[in-house]
Structures are given as structure tokens and as C-alpha cells.
Amino acid sequence: MNLAANLQHLQTRIAAACDRAGRAPDSVTLQAVSKGQTPEAIRAAADLGLRLFGENRVQEARAKIPQCPGNLRWQMIGHLQSNKCRDAVHFFEMIQSVDSLALAGEINKWADKAALTMPMLLEVNIAGESSKFGYGPERLLAELPEINGLGKIEIHGLMTVAPWSADPEKARPVFRKLRELKQSCEQILGAPLPHLSMGMSGDFEAAIEEGATLVRVGTALFGPRVKAKNGAEMPNEA
Questions:
Q1: Structure confidence at residue 224 as a pLDDT band (50, 70, 90)
Q2: How far apart are CA 6 and CA 11, in angstroms?
Q3: Distance between CA 198 and CA 180 in Å, rounded?
Q4: For residue 234, pLDDT beyond 50
Q5: Which of 226, 229, 179, 171 is nearest to 201 (CA)?
Q6: Residue 190: how many other CB atoms lie within 10 Å
Q7: Structural domain boundaries in the chain
Q8: With helix as H, strand as E and coil as C, how does the chain read?
Q9: Chain center to CA of 23
Q10: Is 3-222 in CATH node 3.20.20.10?
Q11: To 10 degrees, the CA torsion angle through 103, 109, 110, 116?
Q12: What is the pLDDT of residues 68-98, one digit of tens each?
């Protein structure tokens, strides 16, 4: 794995996608998806200047974060169970995967106990895939005012995972719909939402062209995931 070369290549591609979209390169943040990566690999990425990391599992993050440099920023990007909310509020600066009013309420409860305000993104299952978590667009719009009324959370935007395809152009309509949904949310809230977290290793350029502010990249940065003991490749979320 040549981490430095991978990062340079990613930064070049991000800048080119921003140029095509008429956006400034610094309008997009590269989030390193560190699921399954060792503290040593994360430290190497940090040495190259990366600061924002995304974890998929609370238990893995809880064990790993104390072993990593203290100046890194951590966000939860995987499905969050309600019984993990207390730890999530403690270890993460943002939770990107809020997919129900009940989960938002549980995060609000633990944020209140910790005397802090928790930024979050609302995860939307734009394509309606049964294998993925996330709000349906209509339910999100219906529950948005109640979520926004919770006193210890802040809605910062939306997140989605597009259906996998070898052709990244097939993800473009999903990204466009998320951007349009964000505009509808802003009308309901009467305030701007700064973030669209969308795009991963295979489709982040299309996501940037459709308005992504956060792209979650694992494989294209760290290389292919380690294979499980049965020889199958571990599920790739980025």
C-alpha cells in the first residue's frame, strides 16, 4: 500500500471534480474511512495531513481511538444502535447515520446527560434498498420538525449510500435527489444545512459534481479491505 500516492491521487481527482462543477477544492472534505484499519495505518494517514476519520462500529472505535493521535476528528458513519448512543456521544464529534426520530431522541438524551450538543446528519435511503438503513424521503420531511425541536442535537445536513454499481454515473441521480431533498429540508427549517455526505471510493467524483461536501473514502485510500478468515472480502462501506 502506497498511502501517500493514493492520497495524492485522490486529492487530484477531488480538485478536478470540483473544477468541473465550478466549486472551490476546499468546499469538499475528504473523510478517511478507517473501519478495519489499525492505529498504525491511521497514524500514517494523519502524518500525511488527514484529520477527519469515519468509523462504522462503536465498539471498534472505542478500542481504537485512544491508541490514535489526539488531534484527530472522529465521526460515526455506520448504523447506530440505540444501546450504543452513550458511547457514540462520547467518542464522536458528529453522528452521520441518524435514521429515525427514536434514535435522534436517544442521542439527545445522552447528549443532555453529557452537557453537550451533538451535531448529526440524517441518513436517507434514497434508492429504497431493503438492505440499507436510512429514512425514506417522505418520512424524513414529516419527522424533521420534531427532530429539530430536540434541544441537544443540531441537524447539519443529510447523508446517503448510493447503490453499488461499476458505473459511477448510475449513482448520480441518487446524489441529485439527496441535494434536492436537502433544499426541501432547508425550506421546512428556514435555515441552511451545510453538509451533504455522499460519495465513496467508486463514485465520489459524481457526488462532488452533485454537491457533496463530505466524501467518505476507504478503499481508494487504504487499499482493498483485509479478507475475512473464510476468504471473502470484508463488506466495503467506502
A1: confident
A2: 9
A3: 13
A4: no
A5: 171
A6: 7
A7: 3-222
A8: CCHHHHHHHHHHHHHHHHHHHCCCHHHCEEEEECCCCCHHHHHHHHHCCCCEEEECCHHHHHHHHHHCCCCCEEEECCCCCHHHHHHHHHHCCEEEEECCHHHHHHHHHHHHHCCCCEEEEEEECCCCCCCCCCECHHHHHHHHHHHHCCCCEEEEEEECCCCCCCCHHHHHHHHHHHHHHHHHHHHHHCCCCCEEECCCCCCHHHHHHCCCCEEEECHHHHCCCCECCCCCECCCCC
A9: 20
A10: yes
A11: 110
A12: 999 999 999 999 999 999 999 999 999 999 9
The three grid cell numbers given for residue 60, joined into one nine-digit string: 471498534
Residues in contact with 156: Cβ distance below 8 Å, sequence separation at least 6, in sequence order: 94, 119, 120, 121, 193, 194, 195
The pLDDT, as a whole number, for residue 227 is 55
CB within 8 Å of 6: residues ≥ 6 apart: 220, 221, 222, 223
